[in-house]
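ligand=hypoxanthine
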Amino acid sequence: MSIPKAELHLHIEGTLEPELAFALAERNGVTLPYASVDDLRAAQAFDDLQSFLDLYYACMAVLRTERDFEDLADAYLRRAAAQGVRHAEIFFDPQAHLSRGVGMGAVVDGLWRALSRSEETHGVSTRLIMCFLRDESAASAMETLELARPYLDRITGIGLDSAEVGHPPVKFREVYEAAAALGLRRVAHAGEEGPAAYITEALDVLGVERVDHGLRCMEDAALVERLVRERIPLTLCPLSNVRLRAVEALEEHPLPAMLDAGLMCTVNSDDPAYFGGYADDNFDAVRDHLGLGEDRLRELARNSFLASFLEDDEERRARYLAEVEAYEFPR
Ligand code: HPA
Ligand code: ZN
């Protein structure tokens, strides 16, 4: 079901398919702690967020050069285009590379080589969002923002990811203030494994404009009412939630209730190489397992463009929105 859509919650490192991981391992003389592609896939049986993060960071060891980041992003954009993605706001985790001796330049310049020709090559417009690892210190986040200064013309915003519980948004107040002063847009993961209170804190303390995941807002009726009133977009990732056991089964996912409550939901793939599907696979999953009809699917696609950071190109947003309205579902 390739309805035109924007992808707003996508970690580029989470698009590293096992086949590419082994190819890059060979190219760079790096040894992965897995014997084969099948072995690596077998390791993708996760219990929770941390068990995923352990594998996610281990596999990143193969990403060493500008060309690796270019190849990674190009492979993602090709797959995304085939799944109806017209615009992608892509997260990257610089600290996970800096700590391995890979410079900010290799990461951003490499990604940018793929992103800057993506419209021409894949028909996908892009933005970059730099995430801070919340289980690292606030000082490390601030140093990372400093290191990114020469690249800010290519970075639209900042985000917050990695292990959530025990690392509340308030820990990053100063770095979010500094980023806002630099004109960067602000998002944060909140309410994936962490409590609804982290969502409120991300809004009040960090000034986020979108909430990544935000699933657990459903435990706080006053917060739901506020998110609806303020039209705060939530970037939901249904297949991720199942694989990381934030929900017991796809059939139990609160997305229909969230839409019924009037929340501005979007559907995204998070880390598609690890969670069993790209953008359309997530749309197909909510159609097939949550009984969402054409009106709801069109609403999700419309929301993705309304929630995207296209304020500098409203003509493009209008064009994409027109494509959503004109889309005919296959019979
Ligand atoms: N949650 C937190 N951190 C992450 C995720 C996620 O889903 N994916 C990559 N880093
Ligand atoms: Zn995520």
